Amino acid sequence: MGNGYLRFAALGDSTTVGLGDPVPGGGWRGWARLLAESLRASYDVSFCNVAMSGATAEIVRERQLGEALAHRPDLASLIVGVNDTLRSTWDPGRLHADLHHVAGALAEGGATLMTVRWHDHAALLGLPRLLVRPMADRIAVVNEVYDDLYATFGGLRLDLALMPEVLDRACWSIDRFHPSESGHRALARAWGERLRAAGFDFPLPSLEPGGGCPPSWRRDVAWMVTEGAPWFGRRARDLGPWAVRRAMAAAR
């Protein structure tokens, strides 16, 4: 594809917000912005990031889709679903309906979809054994939904489980749940490779750190105290009782 105007909308949760890749002055950068910056070397890019930390598929449908459609994107990344698996309100049917609605609306609007298959978060997080299998089962359901999306609407997709960076500790923030700058750069690079294979002509996002905040154990500890630990506490309260009931039922 030659030079021209390109509209890119990014929908999803904290990974697309850019958590784990802080920039001087506050805020986050992340893989989607890194990708947009690389695309700007060859295209006049209009970038719209409507992702929200903690977003579920329902939140994407109700609070992000309208703004994304108003942007009339040529490319639309839809990366959400993990937060759905971490709630006691887990509803596979609702997840399927919400993601299909969002993907269908974006595709109907002319966007090329960018979706993923998730890796095994539980194995990386070191969760209690009580939660590992239930979370893995839920991630498998999310991946089935994304398989269906890809079969129905096409587009581009990235299988995170096949990325070697997923097993590289340097690619994860202190919470092991959000990518570090290196992790976000790896994601941007992987998406760049898929876009180039699809005919887009632009330099690949760099894997070399730059433009963000240097690693700081003080900032990491402060983030875990103010954000990370409370988040894990909320998820434990939400999922713990359900996991215990599930384990007891399986033992009968």
In short:
This protein has a single domain (5-251), classed as Rossmann fold. Helices cover 52% and strands 12% of the residues.
Question: What would you note in describing this structure?
Answer:
There is one protein chain. This protein is an alpha/beta fold and 252 residues long. It has one domain (5-251): 3-Layer(aba) Sandwich (Rossmann fold). Helices cover 52% and strands 12% of the residues. It has nine helices and five strands, in the order βααβαβααβααβαα. It has helices spanning 14-17, 31-39, 57-70, 82-85, 92-108, 121-125, 129-153, 181-197, 217-251; strands spanning 5-12, 44-49, 75-79, 112-117, 156-159. Strands 2-1-3-4-5 form a five-stranded parallel β-sheet, sandwiched between helices. Helix 2 crosses helix 8 (181-197), helix 3 runs parallel beside helix 5 (92-108) and helix 5 (92-108) packs parallel to helix 7 (129-153). The radius of gyration is 18 Å and the shape is globular.
